[in-house]
Amino acid sequence: MRITIAQASGFCMGVRMAMNTILKHAHESDEPIETLGPLIHNPQTMELLRKKNVTTVKTPAEVTASTVVIRTHGVPPDIRGQMEARPVRIVDATCPHVKRIHKIIGQYYAKGYAIVIFGDKGHAEVVGLLGCAKGKGYLIQTPDQIGKLPGLGKVCLVAQTTQNLSEYERIKERIRAQYADAAIFDTICRATDQRQAEVVALSKSSDAVVVVGGKNSANSTRLADLARASCTHVFHIETEAELNPADFTGTRSVAIASGASTPSWLLNRVYERLSEIADHQRPLYQRIFIESVKIAVSFNIYLAFGAALAAWTASYIQGMSANYLHMAIAWLYINSMYILNHLTNITENQYQEIFKTDYIYRHRKISILLCMLTGLLSIALAYQSGLSEFILLLVASFAGILYHMKLLPKNNLPFLRNRRLKDITLSKDIGIAMAWAVICAVLPNAGVSLFTSLPSSGEIVAFLFIFILVFIRTIFRDLYDIQRDNIVGRETLPIVLGKKLSLLFPYPLLVLCALVPIAGFFTSLIPANSLLLLVCPAYLLLVYHLFIKNKLAGWAVFSLVLDFTFYAPFLLILAATAGLVPGL
Ligand code: SF4
């Protein structure tokens, strides 16, 4: 079963801005926050906000918190006036597209126009728009209703942002025919417009369509209705738990679309569940293979083997022959630390890595055992390797454990709110890259030079190369996890820079990653074949483009493809050494 995710998916711009605003306030203070009406029409997101002490009130009179948020749909001016009269801090999260319509209505009302609004009766946004029209607003749902309106004189036409585009075109035609001088505005937002066009196209080319979104969400319901016009198997669901495998028997292709208020973590969970259903339709040998791959990825065995190969690459850069003991140490250490990370992040990971977290959660005892076993074994091997290696690994392991521990009691102090090292801005990105670089590039030399001499130039090149490579990998992962990190309040680079800037950030890093082996080569600091390391930035560039084009759907595929970065230089250098590809 082929699964396609619509390009326009996850939160739209307005919802993302509102969520960012509210989460920022929630993370800055433990004070309760209230939203006037549900922030968005998505029960799962609202439940998540409730856990963060963000609750909903229906009217300004019910507000008890000191901070109140106006939701994306906006409010009528009289409600805003009532809120401003109260001693509360108002956070306005009204979507800019909705604000624009408020402004249009305000201007044309002042010029004496009657305001015709194409929208759903009772919808929060429409209530706000009618409020702006101050009694001169006329709500319609179909072109036919235009003929039944009283004589209006000058007319201004607007639409609710999430309305059906083709229906609005018909309404515009009818208004033009009846009111030649009407002021008509295109106010259906692009997010809605794109999603509707895409769901129509996908429903024509797929056997089934799954629309993920709140049952009370107007735009999700509209997407499902549009899909039903061309596809007989359409399922409007809120969570993956509603998917019934029997509904997909014989289905060859399924498309996933989502409403503007559906978080991408929920979408990922639906994708993973559909993948599981698809896997069950495969022959046994394929299922065994897929399950084995999932286990290798889930328990970080695949990534840890990549660490062993990164240690090999680091030794190669330094002109040293491979030391299998050091490779094994790198494997075991990385395996242990990543399992520890997942065990201490079960709550956070539930928003993203459904199958991985579920594996670790379901097999928690085995995971704890594996974490301890690999950790202790790495220390034992380091001891066998030498005293310097042993001390270095002990320090690295201790730092890894310390990184996850709560070091301070709960407090509201401005600079001490981060209770764990991993809560400090960028600590994750830098800490992980540093740990890899130390284990892969410094450890092989520890016995020779750790406490006695300065690092060699080859060691510096290897350290920088591994550091940058892992840093880029972590940034890619951060971009993938941006919504989860935002929810849990982790300040990774994409959160600090904002998504737009972060999407540009990998490019200079990739250039830097390419410059290290080039500089090493031209200064003869590293072996000639090391120029083959350029395969890493080239490969990562390809992965990045696939990622931003949504071609790496699903956590398992994303991890498999991304972590192959550590396998690529090893395989290429090996092939060049064997004369299978031209060396340098
Ligand atoms: S769907 Fe459009 S109008 Fe509504 S919140 Fe999102 S961006 Fe704003």
Q: What are its keywords?
A:
584 residues; alpha/beta; Rossmann fold; Cobalt-precorrin-4 Transmethylase, domain 1; 4-stranded parallel sheet; 26 helices; 12 strands; 9% strand; binds iron/sulfur cluster; iron
Describe this structure in words.
The chain has 584 residues and is of the alpha/beta class. It has helices at 13-28, 43-51, 77-84, 96-110, 124-132, 144-147, 165-178, 190-205, 218-228, 264-280, 284-298, 301-317, 324-343, 346-349, 354-362, 364-385, 387-404, 427-449, 457-480, 482-488, 493-497, 499-504, 506-522, 535-548, 555-563, 568-577; strands at residues 2-5, 33-36, 54-57, 67-70, 89-92, 114-118, 137-140, 155-159, 183-184, 208-212, 233-237, 253-258. It has four domains: 11-94, Rossmann fold, CATH 3.40.50.11270; 98-188, Cobalt-precorrin-4 Transmethylase, domain 1 (3-Layer(aba) Sandwich); 191-291, 4-hydroxy-3-methylbut-2-enyl diphosphate reductase, catalytic domain (Cobalt-precorrin-4 Transmethylase, domain 1), CATH 3.40.1010; 292-577, Farnesyl Diphosphate Synthase. The strands form three sheets. A four-stranded parallel β-sheet has the order 1-12-10-11, sandwiched between helices. A four-stranded parallel β-sheet has the order 3-2-4-5. Helix 13 packs parallel to helix 17 (387-404) and helix 16 (364-385) runs antiparallel to helix 17. Iron/sulfur cluster (SF4) binds at residues 12-15, 72, 95, 97-98, 161-162, 189, 191-192, 260. Dimethylallyl diphosphate binds at residues 41, 73, 123, 217, 219, 261. Its EC number is 1.17.7.4.
